[in-house]
Amino acid sequence: MELGMVGLGRMGANMAERLLRGGHRIVAFDRGPDAIARVVAKGAAGADSLPRLVSSLKAPRAIWLMIPAGAPVDQTIAELLPLLSPGDTIIDGGNSNYKDTMRRAESLAARQIHYIDSGTSGGIWGLENGYALMIGGPDEAVQRLGPVFETLAPAKDRGWGHVGPSGAGHFVKMIHNGIEYGMMQAYAEGFAIMDRKKELRLHLPQIAEIWRHGSVVRSWLLDLAARALSDNPQLDGIKPQVADSGEGRWTVFEAVDLNVSAPVITASLQARIRSRDEDCYTERMLAVLREQFGGHAVSRGARR
Questions:
Q1: Which residues contact 201 (CB under 8 A, 6 or more apart)?
Q2: Annotated catalytic residue within 42, 79, 106, 173
Q3: What is the full per-residue pLDDT of the chain (304 aa) written as tens digits?
Q4: Interatomic CA distance for residues 130 and 21, integer angstroms
Q5: Catalytic choice (42, 128, 180, 199)
Q6: Catalytic residue at 198?
Q7: Rounded to whole angstroms, what are the CA distances from 62 to 4, 74, 75, 94, 118?
Q8: Which of the chain's ends, N or C, has fewer CB atoms near its CB within 10 Å?
Q9: Is 173 one of the annotated active-site residues of the chain?
């Protein structure tokens, strides 16, 4: 199957490479020529413009967007729309707000263009391990693109699913990321408490390794914490600044709108906001965890 890929950051490039390994034809476009060249070196066809990308695909076309949420998605859709035909499909694999997704899907449906939202989790490890895909959109379009989702997922029969209509995929991914905030916060706080108990001379890398095997709190995030601690037990040189990319905030707002109590997720979001002002082991642990699982940038420098 062939697919257009727009946005070749680290995750987008890795997804394109996984699809190429699975035998799919990929036509790739990015604003940066170097990004295109790196994916072309893996076997993709390159396009130096969106019109060139669209003309390189056979109808009905499918174009996967891996670009920042918000205005960049709307701008890219506006550029694509005059180039597409009824029956074509746009897939948004980024972290768009589900309300924006519903608006876009309704607008595109009037032009007989399918719009699929694929909440995508897996970070920089997805190339080898596969991605969890939470998919929303019309049945016909999702079924047609089944081979693409099966290739990106950890296996054909797990790690992906059509969770509902347009917006459902991004809604589920939003909640997923809110839960992620809470889990990361709990790990960070626990390790911070142990770090402060100096008289016991606890070795945190050892404890993380113990917990990884057989304990109730074992998880992939704990695996990443153990890896980070083995390299730098005191997280020296890591500034306590933890970004939030939006999904945690949206989850908290949704909980308020629905009258659902979500104190853990709310507190974890507040901790990230607080991290921009305080020097704290907890936030440094959160920062290094984000670097480990997603390749997110970490601010480095001397501790204050």
A1: none
A2: 173
A3: 999 999 999 999 999 999 999 999 999 999 999 999 999 999 999 999 999 999 999 999 999 999 999 999 999 999 999 999 999 999 999 999 999 999 999 999 999 999 999 999 998 899 999 999 999 999 999 999 999 999 999 999 999 999 999 999 999 999 999 999 999 999 999 999 999 999 999 999 999 999 999 999 999 999 999 999 999 998 988 887 787 778 899 999 999 999 999 999 999 998 888 777 656 677 788 888 988 887 777 777 655 4
A4: 12
A5: 180
A6: no
A7: 6, 17, 18, 16, 13
A8: C
A9: yes
User: Do 136 and 116 meet the contact criterion of CB atoms below 8 Å apart?
Assistant: yes
Count how many Cα atoms sit within 13 Å of the Cα of residue 50 in the half-sphere of its side chain.
18
The DSSP bridge partners found for residue 90 are: 63, 115
Please answer whether residues 16 and 39 qualify as being in contact, where contact means their C-beta atoms are separated by less than 8 angstroms: yes
Helix (H) or strand (E) holding 7: none
Q: Report whether 173 contacts 95 (CB < 8 A).
A: yes
> Which uninterrupted H or E stretch holds 295?
none
